[in-house]
Amino acid sequence: METIHEYGGFKVDRNELAKLFHIIFNSGLKNKDLDSGFGYSKIRHLKYYLRNFNLLDKNYSPTDLSRVVYTYDKYFEDEVTLWVLFYHWAGRTSNSFLYYQLNESVGSKTKENLRKDFSSWANGNNIKTDYDKKDFVGGLIARTLNSFTEADAFKNLNIFTLREEIYSRDIPYKTNPLLVAYVLYDNRHGRTTLSFEELLKEYNNIGKIFNLNRETLQQQIYAMRDIGLVQYIQTANLQHIVYTYQGIPLKLLERYYEQY
Fold first, then answer.
1. What residues does 233 pair with on adjacent strands?
2. Model confidence over 190-201: pLDDT tens digits?
């Protein structure tokens, strides 16, 4: 059974996370409570964030992604960096509530409705929701939802908006074609082509992550095509995206940082 992390009450704060990331990347994990000024409990839970953002591996050592981010944007100031962290956070084993919210939930909902619907979905998908700590699941949901609306987290990306206590998907900001291509190729899984319909619906691929409809998905495909990263083929009523880029996805991020 999968379990969840509720991050011990600590929110997504990119300044704090960048500070700890800088220390871990350069010095490892020893005596971090002294070096960072954070207490042991806070460090432990901030490390969960960094691991769930794919900046630390399961042993809490720097990943290949972390080396790229540290080289070009160690303080998490660029919106594309935040998008990449958000994308990895949306993995089912990273943040099962966010995964549900992006891929399974339909329409605009209140926090309470999201909680009820997530709990029902989780119980049917082998994800543990019964914990000794009171409101453990509610803690994860609160920190995830707050990250969309707080300036020191993901607010600048305009992923979800909160109006009259209802959370709704919105038009995302700062979706550079190289960022979109990074997500597309990270989800390639050895394929050479993918249909337009599949790309709209596939979990944690660009249609879901960036809230794309038919028109906006086509715009993104054209933008990637124009810089030589995909081909777009239409025959009769069939539309296919052909993967033409042969490098690793991280090289697309490096290309973004070097160009912008």
1. 240
2. 999 999 999 999
For the cut 90, the answer to whether the pLDDT of residue 32 exceeds it is no
Count how many Cα atoms sit within 13 Å of the Cα of residue 48 in the half-sphere of its side chain: 19
pLDDT of the residue at 238: 83
- CA distances to 71, 102, 125, 168, 212 from 86, rounded to whole Å, are 19, 11, 22, 17, 16
Give the whole-angstrom CA distance, residue 143 versus residue 236: 46
CA-to-CA dists, residue 136 to 7, 121, 132, 176, 249, angstroms: 10, 16, 8, 36, 35
- Residue 149 and residue 55 in one domain: yes
pLDDT 10s digits, 138-173:
999 999 999 999 999 999 999 999 999 999 999 999
3-state secondary structure 64-96: HHHHHHHHHHCCCCCHHHHHHHHHHHCCCCCCH
Give buried/exposed letters for 128-159 (b at 16+ CB in 10 A, else e).
Answer: ebeeeeeebbebbbbbbbebbeeeebbbebbb
Q: What is the pLDDT of residue 40?
A: 86
105 and 189 share one domain: no
Q: Are residues 130 and 38 in the same domain?
A: yes
Residue with tokens 């919106």: 79
- 155 and 230 in a single domain? The answer is no
Domain that residue 61 falls in: 7-169
